[in-house]
Automatic annotation (TrEMBL):
Organism: Nocardioides marinquilinus
Classification via PROSITE patterns: ABC_TRANSPORTER_1, ABC_TRANSPORTER_2
Annotated GO MF terms: ATP binding
Keyword field contains Transport: yes
Family: Belongs to the ABC transporter superfamily.
Protein name, entry field: ATP-binding cassette domain-containing protein
CDD domains the UniProt entry points to: ABC_NikE_OppD_transporters (cd03257)
Keywords: ATP-binding, Nucleotide-binding, Transport
Amino acid sequence: MTDLDKAEQPDAAGPRDDVLLRVEGLKVHFPIRSGLLLGRQVGAVRAVDGVDLEIPAGRTLGLVGESGCGKSTLGKAILKLVPVTEGRVEYDGTDVASLRGEPLRRMRRHLQMVFQDPMASLNPRQSVETILTEPLRAHGISYDKRTRVRELLDAVGLPASASAKYPHEFSGGQRQRIGIARAIALEPRLVIADEPVSALDVSIQAQVLNLLEELQERLGLTYLVIAHDLAVVRHVSDEVAVMYLGGVVEQASADDLYATPRHPYTKALMSAVPVPDPKVEENRRRIVLAGDLPSPANPPSGCRFHTRCPFRQPTRCDDERPQLRVVETGPGGAHKVACHWAEEIQAGTVTPHEVTAQDVADAEAEATV
Ligand SMILES: Nc1ncnc2c1ncn2[C@@H]1O[C@H](COP(=O)(O)OP(=O)(O)OP(=O)(O)O)[C@@H](O)[C@H]1O
């Protein structure tokens, strides 16, 4: 069975055997140092604070959340680009943390990243040909330069003449195509795309997203697509995970999550998305969250979202951190939510109340881990 055939199989609530990437209890805490020569650790930024994720082969998981919630750090931790404090990253059944030297280098071939800003991630002094062949040289892979460069450019919709040019000679969208060509040069299986279109004009975004989808189909790629923009994630994802302050608060198939968001934070995020139908748009009720994202150096106790949550119930939300749990399994697969009151909110027995900026400040003052 090919990866693509496997990807046709329906989701199940239990563990699946076609999982390419599995993340368990992942934590990335950056030490905060103080004192002379910054030698003493006085705290930690809990950028990622206990994340579980699974991506089946050939599928796309979209990861959304506001700036600073830990999305990029999670992506980097999967690629071992930042040190993991606790937890496990398993790629194709192998614990990534245990790999060193040659096995790590070999594994890296299969996991590649597409970055937000192609101008910053491409070396301005290298020609496109050098940019595209450097990963092959670094991994000691023999290739016919002209043929391989032409194949890669063709795969991302650029002409062979692009080969001799430099990044500044291209538009933003073309540069991101070069970044994508570089990412697929080593024939990876998993690609982590961190805000792949947020630096691009809206008119160009769809073209680049379509290219990512086309390459997925042709090459059987598995994607983790990180974005703050819900529309971008919806466009490309089979499943979507919503992150808030270092943790995943909701995960479901894209259709289920957009049709029936269940976590209060997801409800607020979704309420901000404009609806194309003018009648629906007119009646759309925006949930505006009071306060800002709390500092990951000093996260609230209990549910990380309780300080801003319109559905907060004393005192369980303040004291007990909810686990991400399956609340429903439908045709789209398992719908997981990290909220103590997910069922009651759905049934309408727990209802929203107004939260003011002062309420948030008071709750934050009371609630530190
Ligand atoms: N190397 C680092 N050292 C210390 N703190 C860091 C480091 N990298 C990230 N952080 C902090 O970790 C938190 C999460 O950052 P991260 O970049 O992962 O969030 P994000 O959701 O990707 O946001 P954005 O979209 O703005 O990049 C932030 O508070 C950030 O300041």
